[in-house]
């Protein structure tokens, strides 16, 4: 049986409209951010429109393929992503193509701009993990603690390869995104809480212990593990930014001052006074908070809530397990990005250098997110045709 609905009926116009709203917010925020004069006249707003255009093409291309095709290609796509991460270290750092930036080997320097393969690897990893979980459930029809441990082991192996490359770059923020995606899919995969709860408690205990040691046992960590004092700076500057106002705490203090000075209604477009370094990328929310105040910031947060709600609604409508896992991973990825980015601008979380999805300037980040959204478009566009095809085969 074929789905006789046309393109207009199957295309997700609501999701497209939400992305359009993000484009408007992004361009307005970035165009205002670059008026500070710290960017040597570079029009990042126009560049962001260009990346959105490229992202739209990516969505159109991704929609061509059906969920079953992505399921078959998952490991190939995952392997391609690992290869890109490996090339960053295989090629000599002296080469212009992979020369380190800010002491990190994370980018390919191409004529169109710097491309960060880790941004695409997030989505590639989701595709592979969804395939792994789906296949596991097909093989082990009878669920038990033993089979859950087997699944958890498979997931751990799949995670550790990209995670090792990303930590070596080093890029802690992106590594945390991979861990968040993994945690979400472990829960969605149905692994028993008899396993998950001890893991969560153990991880929380280790994390709290490390934080306490970083605050009160620095000499022990330096002597026993070879850590250096500067490596604790982000934690110290997060807890007490004013003690590091001239160094690590400067970004956070500037962000807090900017958002706080916006008060309820903000200062209006271009009305910023507080200087925030690199405010068109990771700290774009500070621009929004200062210029549009609590009301404007709340509207942006609500827009993200609307996006997550709509993606969740799509996920619940899907009949294919693989598509469901893919969408769940994408939801986890975007949600963590939003929570971490906004959290770090208001001192709720440490600064990790994670951009605000669809709003911060950045070609790699935006294209990676558009790739992920393109998969959701594809899952929604093809899911009825795919469902009927599956019933027909049965």
From TrEMBL:
Q: Pfam families of this UniProt entry?
A: FTSW_RODA_SPOVE (PF01098)
Give the transmembrane region(s).
12-34, 49-65, 77-95, 145-166, 172-192, 199-217, 292-309, 321-339, 359-377
Q: Which membrane topology describes this protein? A: Multi-pass membrane protein
Q: Where in the cell is it found?
A: Membrane
Does the record's keyword annotation contain Transmembrane helix? yes
What's a single GO MF annotation on this record?
lipid-linked peptidoglycan transporter activity
Q: What is its main location?
A: membrane
Coiled coil start-end: none
Q: Name one GO cellular component term.
A: cell division site
Keyword Transmembrane helix, does the record have it? yes
Per the record, the domain of life is: Bacteria
Q: Which UniProt keywords apply?
A: Cell shape, Membrane, Transmembrane, Transmembrane helix
This protein is called what? Rod shape-determining protein RodA
Which organism was this protein described from? Answer: Psychrobacillus vulpis
């Amino acid at each position: 049986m074929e789905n006789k609905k046309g393109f207009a009926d199957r295309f997700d116009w609501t999701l497209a409209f939400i992305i359009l709203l993000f484009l408007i917010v992004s361009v307005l925020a970035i165009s205002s951010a670059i008026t500070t004069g710290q960017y040597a006249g570079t029009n990042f707003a126009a560049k962001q429109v260009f990346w959105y255009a490229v992202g739209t093409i990516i969505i159109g291309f991704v929609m061509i393929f059906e969920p079953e095709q992505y399921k078959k290609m998952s490991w190939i796509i995952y392997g391609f992503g690992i290869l890109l991460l490996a090339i960053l270290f295989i090629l000599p750092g002296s080469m212009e193509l992979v020369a380190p930036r800010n002491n990190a080997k994370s980018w390919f320097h191409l004529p169109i701009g710097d491309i960060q393969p880790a941004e695409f690897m997030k989505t590639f990893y989701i595709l592979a993990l969804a395939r792994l979980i789906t296949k596991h459930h097909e093989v082990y029809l009878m669920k038990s603690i033993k089979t859950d441990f087997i699944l958890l082991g498979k997931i751990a192996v799949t995670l550790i390869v990209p995670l090792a490359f990303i930590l070596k770059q080093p890029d802690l923020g992106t590594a945390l995104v991979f861990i968040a995606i993994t945690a979400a899919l472990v829960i969605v995969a149905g692994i028993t809480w008899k396993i998950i709860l001890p893991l969560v408690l153990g991880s929380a205990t280790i994390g709290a212990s490390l934080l306490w040691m970083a605050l009160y046992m620095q000499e022990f960590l330096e002597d026993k593990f070879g850590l250096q004092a500067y490596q604790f700076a982000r934690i110290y500057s997060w807890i007490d930014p004013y003690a590091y106002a001239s160094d690590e705490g400067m970004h956070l203090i500037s962000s807090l001052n900017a958002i706080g000075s916006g008060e309820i209604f903000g200062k209006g477009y271009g009305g910023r006074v507080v200087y925030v370094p690199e405010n068109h990328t990771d700290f774009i929310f500070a621009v929004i908070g200062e210029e549009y105040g609590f009301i404007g910031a709340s509207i942006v947060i609500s827009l993200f809530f609307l996006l997550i709600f709509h993606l969740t609604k799509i996920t619940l409508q899907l009949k294919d397990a693989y598509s469901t896992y893919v969408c769940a991973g994408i939801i986890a990825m975007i949600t963590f990005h939003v929570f971490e980015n906004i959290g770090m601008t208001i001192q709720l979380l440490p600064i990790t250098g994670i951009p605000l999805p669809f709003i911060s300037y950045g070609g790699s980040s935006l294209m990676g997110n558009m790739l992920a959204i393109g998969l959701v478009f594809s899952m929604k566009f093809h899911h009825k045709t795919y469902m009927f095809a599956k019933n027909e085969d049965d």
